[in-house]
Design brief:
mainly alpha, about 130 residues, rod-shaped
Length: about 130
Amino acid sequence: RAAELETALRSLEAGHGTLSAAHEELRAGHAATCETLAVAEATLTRVQAELESTATQLAQKDADLRASITSVMQIQADNAAQVRNERERGEKLEEEVRGLRETQGQLMGDNQAAALEVERQQGEINSLNGR
């Protein structure tokens, strides 16, 4: 019976040695996995921070771009209004010029008629003086 127990003990010790070796191998694998996990978590944290920063920057750029577009649209509307006003002003000035040209033509006609009348009256005066 002692021999059986000794054999069983040796068998248990051999099994214990195998289990201890497997345990050490698992412990080393676990440590490597924990280290890999820590590196992955650090990388994930860094990438999340970069992503949040990029999202914030993009949101600001989007807001700036929208403000710029609004500003450009307002400038464009102001310029269009100014062009309309200048065109209306130009049309009024052209109309005024046409009116002034008509008046000038009438005045030149009146002036010519007056000059002819003066010449006619001068001729009458001369003919009366010559008698």
